[in-house]
Write a structure and sequence with these properties.
Blueprint: E1 3-6, E2 12-14, E3 21-24, E4 45-47, E5 67-69, H1 72-78, E6 81-82, H2 88-101, H3 113-124, E7 134-137, E8 145-149, E9 152-157, E10 160-165, E11 168-169, E12 173-174, E13 180-183, H4 187-194
Length: 210
């Protein structure tokens, strides 16, 4: 079993659970297929599992490390954003919502995604490679956002918190009104959600997270 699954805190873990999305942080493994780095560049992206019939051998020496996520909401919490090659429409929508949701940066649509990546990078991880978190009122948190409670990651969805596991989400618990919560999803990405980007959530299309 390889260490190639990412949790909402951005940690790369071992699990037998399958992922719905793939991610890239550069070449972060060695020839023994062991994780040696947290990342190699600031463009942390989220890709589809299949694209144009391309085939890859996971953790090939010298090639970028394939990481996997339960769903897109998990990838965003870890600090990843849609790939501009295999998920171009999603990436363009995310960039538009990110710029609209973060007016303090005065960016325009022709702004390089690299500039956005640099800002997100500062919101996802410290120089000591620790997860960055921030505080928000529950009333200011959109669906698809992750929070930390009692040391565990929870998905915020339709006024309830669902505990994350590598295999899916547990039954939701109600969120106290006007409560201050510790948020895992990077601040500017949460603002992109508020501006209209809707992250894909495992089970939501089946009504399992109502």
């Amino acid at each position: 079993m390889l260490q190639n699954r990412v949790d909402p805190l951005g940690r790369i873990i071992k699990t037998s659970a399958r992922g719905a999305f793939m991610g890239n942080r550069g070449v972060i493994h060695n020839e023994q297929k062991e994780i040696t780095h947290t990342f190699k560049h600031k463009a942390w992206i989220t890709c589809v599992l299949e694209f144009k019939g391309r085939k890859r051998t996971v953790m090939t020496a010298g090639r970028w490390t394939e990481l996997f996520f339960l769903d897109e909401a998990t990838a965003f919490a870890a600090g990843h954003r849609p790939c501009f090659e295999c998920r171009r429409d999603d990436a363009k929508n995310f960039k538009s919502c990110w710029i609209r949701g973060n007016p303090r940066y005065n960016f325009i649509m022709s702004t390089s995604i690299n500039e956005i990546d640099a800002i997100i990078h500062g919101e996802r991880i410290t120089h000591e490679k620790k997860k960055v978190m921030h505080q928000r009122l529950s009333s200011d948190i959109p669906d698809g956002t992750f929070i930390l409670m009692n040391g565990d990651p929870y998905l915020f969805n339709k006024g309830k918190l669902h505990r994350w596991t590598p295999f899916g989400y547990e039954n939701g618990i109600a969120v106290p009104e006007a409560s201050m919560l510790t948020v895992l999803t990077p601040d500017s990405i949460v603002n992109a959600f508020r501006a209209g980007y809707v992250p894909q959530i495992k089970g939501s299309e089946l009504g399992d997270l109502s």
